[in-house]
Structures are given as structure tokens and as C-alpha cells.
């Protein structure tokens, strides 16, 4: 993870994950967190653990992590995003406290879809992931300049004497 964009995306993933933890915790305690509510409490808790695994895989630059992240968040937030957009299109011009919570949940659903798509594109566009894979068995030798062999003047002539 050498790109600044990759580091930022992982930071946004972490912040959104922490926000979802706070939302699940406040909903479980019966408090209101600015009108934000989980769509399905048990699925939200399961999703928190799945996303934690996906974050580890994405930091290690594994494509399966980004695909699983997109699939999990797409299934969870995608249906609610479509429902929220349809409700907003059919809504009247009156804005109430309940509708503001619905608007904010729809906005968070949009963020929950955009971040996994950006992470997937970041991994797809990363040239260093395939071109320079890490191999701890050989990198200590080939990536260190101090172990390069110094050639002397006899190396080119092959003038070794045998007795």
C-alpha cells in the first residue's frame, strides 16, 4: 500500500466501520443517534465482523477482500438505497424529523456503496500489486544493495590456474 489514495480509502473504510459500530451500539441501547438506525440489527452485527476481515484482506492487497466487501455492502445497503431514492422521489415537499432520518440513512447507504466500488477500482488499477509482489523468501537477497557481488578484474578473463 504505497499509494496515498489507497491509504485514504482504508481510512474512510475504517471511519465508516466505526460509524456503523456506533449506530449498532446506540440502537441496541435504545438511544437515537441523529436519526440513523440500522436496517437489520443482526445483519449489521454480522456485517461488522465480515467488514473487519475484508479490511485486513484489502490492506494486504487481496482482490477477494474487495469483492467480498462490495458484495456484503452492496447487498446490505443497495436495497435500502433504492428504497430510499424511490421514497424521496415520491415524497412531498414537507420535511419532518422522520423524513430527515430517512434522508440521512439514504445518504449513508450511498456512502456505503461508493466506498466499496472505489476500493475495488483502486485494487484493479494498482499496477504494483501484480508487477512487484512481495516475496519474503527472496526479497532479502535481491532487494538489498549491500549483498550485490562485486566483480574484480579476474572475473572477466577467467584466468584461474589449476595445479
Can you put this structure into words, describing what you see?
With 163 residues, this protein is mainly α. The chain has one domain. It contains seven helices and no strands. The mean pLDDT is 82.
Keyphrases for this structure?
single chain, 163 residues, 72% helix, 0% strand
Q: Count up the helices.
A: 7
Q: What class do helices, strands and sheet pairing give? A: mainly alpha
The proportion of strand residues reads under 5%
Shape: elongated
For the CA atoms, what is the radius of gyration? 25 Å
> Major sheet: size, sense and barrel closure?
none
Count of folded domains: 1
Helix content: over 70%
Kindly state the mean pLDDT as a whole number? Answer: 82
Low-confidence stretches: none
- What is the number of strand segments? 0
Distance between the termini: 56 Å
What's the SSE pattern? HHHHHHH
Brief write-up:
With 163 residues, this protein is mostly helical. It has 7 helices and no strands.
SSE topology:
Elements lengths: L3 H26 L11 H19 L3 H28 L6 H29 L2 H4 L4 H7 L11 H4 L6
Amino acid at each position: 500500500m504505497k499509494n496515498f489514495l489507497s491509504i485514504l480509502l482504508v481510512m474512510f473504510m475504517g471511519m465508516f466501520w466505526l460509524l456503523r459500530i456506533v449506530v449498532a451500539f446506540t440502537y441496541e441501547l435504545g438511544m437515537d443517534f441523529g436519526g440513523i438506525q440500522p436496517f437489520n440489527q443482526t445483519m449489521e452485527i454480522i456485517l461488522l465482523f465480515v467488514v473487519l476481515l475484508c479490511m485486513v484482506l484489502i490492506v494486504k492487497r487481496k482482490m477477494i477482500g474487495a469483492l467480498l466487501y462490495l458484495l456484503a455492502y452492496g447487498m446490505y445497503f443497495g436495497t435500502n438505497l433504492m428504497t430510499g431514492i424511490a421514497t424521496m422521489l415520491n415524497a412531498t415537499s414537507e420535511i419532518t424529523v422522520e423524513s430527515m432520518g430517512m434522508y440521512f440513512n439514504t445518504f449513508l447507504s450511498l456512502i456505503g456503496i461508493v466506498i466499496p466500488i472505489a476500493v475495488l477500482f483502486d485494487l484493479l488499477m494498482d499496477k504494483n500489486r501484480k508487477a512487484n509482489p512481495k516475496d519474503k523468501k527472496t526479497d532479502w537477497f535481491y532487494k538489498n544493495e549491500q549483498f550485490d557481488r562485486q566483480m574484480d578484474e579476474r572475473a572477466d578473463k577467467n584466468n584461474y590456474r589449476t595445479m
